[in-house]
Design goal:
8 strands; Inhibitor of vertebrate lysozyme, Ivy; 166 residues; 3-stranded antiparallel beta sheet; 31% strand; 26% helix; 5-stranded antiparallel beta sheet; single chain; 2 domains; alpha+beta
């Protein structure tokens, strides 16, 4: 069991994780501007489930998705050559908020309808594609080979994606 203790602005944070994640986190925290970094092995520390799956709570994937949304913000009308509208900033902000609260980061794509699609694929039998517009959120899900299509609320997105890993 690895433990990292961080000290930032007189606040201490302790993160515990399995050794397989150790090198990744060591490199991240050592290269960041966080002071007071220390790493130690303590078998009595209670484990956190946040790091049991390398796909969960990936800060790097979240950063990449936010950069992708910033790029989408720069698309002009007809960006795909088929008359697509610009992606509205209101929608981009909505998607930024959604992805910030997800356990698993999806892939993100603009659509020719002025919406944004987020996708998470495990394999051909298990995936979810969610199209987000200003007016609605629509999901297409394949779970164990069974297809489902439906309008959903933004509150349901995290569960749909997380269910792929259950």
């Amino acid at each position: 069991m690895e433990t990292i203790t961080l000290n930032k602005n007189s606040m201490n944070f302790r993160i515990s994780f399995e050794n397989t994640t150790s090198l990744l986190l060591d490199n991240f925290f050592k290269s960041s501007s966080i002071s007071g970094f220390s790493s130690s092995t303590k078998s009595e520390t209670i484990s956190s489930t946040r790091f049991n799956n390398s796909e969960r709570f990936s800060l790097e994937k979240l950063k990449n998705n936010k950069r992708k949304l910033e790029s989408i913000k720069n698309l002009s009308s007809n960006w795909n050559g088929y008359g697509s509208p610009e992606i509205e900033e209101k929608l981009i902000s909505k998607v930024q908020q959604i992805i910030s609260n997800l356990e698993y980061q999806p892939q993100i794509f603009p659509t020719g309808r002025g919406s944004i699609q987020i996708e998470k694929h495990i394999n051909d039998e298990n995936f979810v594609e969610i199209e987000i517009s200003n007016d609605e959120v629509f999901a297409y899900q394949m779970k164990n080979g069974v297809e489902t299509e439906k309008a959903i609320s933004t509150d349901e997105i995290n569960n749909l994606i997380s269910d792929l890993y259950a």
